[in-house]
């Protein structure tokens, strides 16, 4: 869900990279917006570090980002689940809302019950438009009653900030007290996998066993003041660490050193495989401005109070779908033949077109094809047999429960 506009990645990308030095421009790895020319690409604080470690850099949402390193995307995916991965996700946009009215302001734009969060906890949410469609998804954290921290996708940054800024200006003109700060001075690292907590614990005095999935705190890590959220985009236990950019390289080096080589630098290719195995949406593929949170299977993210009160953009459309059910639903699939790709047609057993694949690939951990896509309601139940059309030929598929690989989020027992 937190990819910033990644398109289909996976083993096909590895093959393309091997075939051509310009593979990055030929493969579907970008946001919907046109890729910037190399001279225009932004670089994270770890850019040189990525290159030194064999990172294959590609244009992504206006940034030069590592697609993979010396190991394959398949090996990186498996290593994350077996040991751990360190991702540079500094291209994503962190921001803080402050002021006594920051929560009521944000609740006009998102579906979450932000007011109901305990300080130091967060949740996934969706920014909606007037038609109930998804502008973007975000993890929003209630630091305190007058401080909200959130991270939005890189590929959606410009439209998100314009959207928030426009509504904030109108809100303030009516007397609302809210302001914001965009954390361009900070970098963001994602440490994921079973070794994430043991390795990070070696770099901080705070007891990480008392920080659960969705929790947020400010603490010193490797001698630097950081924002820490126990979350991630892989289905594994892990953390997203916001660190001052001048300290990002030292922190990355310390994490890799403390893991004794078991945690590996990992790129966008494996990040996409991991999120798909975990059944997590990717904005730009599995969610768009014309799809609602209900259709995307994110009903659980709409707070109970918000269902009763509404008050967010598109609430009328979304609440009606909650009552009557949506016309289409996002589901998972297993399939035979070549891996399904975005826009592959989905047919019923009687060859009626019932939907379209939004994400798909070969699962490195399950060793089988997996996919997600929208189908007409009534065809969404697990076990429903379908046909998936790939390059003009139909292959057998079956609706499957998500996540495909069990999640391992760290929660109270």
Automatic annotation (TrEMBL):
Entry binding sites for substrate: 240
GO cellular component labels: glycine cleavage complex; mitochondrion
Keyword flag 4Fe-4S: no
Residue span, GCVT N-terminal domain: 46-304
One GO BP annotation of this record: glycine catabolic process
Domain (Aminomethyltransferase C-terminal): residue spans on this chain: 329-405
Major localization listed first in the record, in broad terms: mitochondrion
Matching Gene3D superfamilies: Aminomethyltransferase beta-barrel domains, Aminomethyltransferase fragment, Probable tRNA modification gtpase trme, domain 1
GO MF, one example: transaminase activity
Keyword annotations from UniProtKB, A to Z: Aminotransferase, Mitochondrion, Transferase, Transit peptide
UniProt KW Mitochondrion keyword: yes
Pfam families named in the record: GCV_T (PF01571), GCV_T_C (PF08669)
Catalytic activity: N(6)-[(R)-S(8)-aminomethyldihydrolipoyl]-L-lysyl-[protein] + (6S)-5,6,7,8-tetrahydrofolate = N(6)-[(R)-dihydrolipoyl]-L-lysyl-[protein] + (6R)-5,10-methylene-5,6,7,8-tetrahydrofolate + NH4(+)
Source organism superkingdom: Eukaryota
Protein location: Mitochondrion
EC number(s) recorded for this UniProt protein: 2.1.2.10
Record's subunit section: The glycine cleavage system is composed of four proteins: P, T, L and H.
Function: The glycine cleavage system catalyzes the degradation of glycine.
Similarity field: Belongs to the GcvT family.
Protein name as catalogued: Aminomethyltransferase
Species name: Canna indica (Indian-shot)
């Amino acid at each position: 869900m937190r990819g910033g506009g990644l398109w289909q990645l996976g083993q096909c990308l590895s093959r393309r990279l091997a075939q051509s030095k310009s593979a990055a421009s030929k493969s579907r790895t970008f946001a919907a917006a046109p890729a910037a020319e190399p001279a225009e690409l932004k670089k994270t604080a770890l850019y040189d570090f990525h290159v030194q470690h064999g990172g294959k850099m590609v244009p992504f949402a206006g940034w030069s980002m590592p697609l993979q390193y010396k190991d394959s995307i398949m090996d990186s995916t498996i290593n994350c689940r077996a040991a751990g991965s360190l991702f540079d996700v500094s291209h994503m946009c962190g921001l803080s809302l402050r002021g006594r009215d920051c929560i009521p302001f944000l609740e006009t734009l998102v579906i979450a019950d932000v007011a109901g969060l305990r300080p130091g906890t967060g949740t996934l949410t969706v920014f909606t438009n007037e038609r109930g469609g998804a502008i973007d998804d975000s993890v929003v954290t209630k630091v305190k009653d007058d401080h909200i921290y959130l991270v939005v996708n890189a590929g959606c940054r410009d439209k998100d900030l314009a959207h928030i800024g426009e509504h904030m200006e109108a809100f303030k003109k009516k007397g609302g007290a809210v302001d914001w700060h965009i954390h361009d001075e900070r970098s963001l690292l994602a440490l994921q996998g079973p070794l994430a907590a043991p390795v990070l614990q070696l770099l901080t005095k705070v007891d990480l066993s008392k920080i659960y999935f969705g929790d947020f705190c400010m603490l010193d890590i490797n001698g630097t003041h950081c924002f820490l959220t126990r979350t991630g985009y892989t289905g594994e236990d892990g953390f997203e660490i916001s660190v001052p950019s001048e300290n990002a390289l030292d922190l990355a080096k310390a994490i890799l050193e403390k893991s004794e080589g078991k945690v590996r630098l990992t790129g966008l290719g494996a990040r996409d495989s991991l999120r798909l195995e975990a059944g997590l949406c990717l904005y730009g593929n599995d969610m768009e401005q014309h799809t609602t949170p209900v259709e995307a299977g994110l009903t659980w993210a709409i707070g109970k109070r918000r269902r009763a009160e509404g008050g967010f953009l598109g609430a009328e459309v979304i609440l009606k779908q909650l009552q009557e059910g949506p016309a289409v639903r996002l589901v998972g699939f297993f399939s035979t033949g070549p891996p399904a790709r975005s826009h592959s047609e989905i047919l019923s057993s009687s060859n009626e077109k019932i939907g379209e694949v939004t994400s798909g690939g070969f699962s490195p951990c399950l060793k089988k094809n997996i996919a997600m896509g929208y189908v007409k309601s009534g065809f969404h139940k697990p076990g429903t047999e379908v046909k998936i059309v790939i390059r003009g030929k139909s292959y057998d598929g079956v609706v499957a429960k998500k996540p495909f690989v069990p999640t391992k989020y760290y929660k109270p027992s």
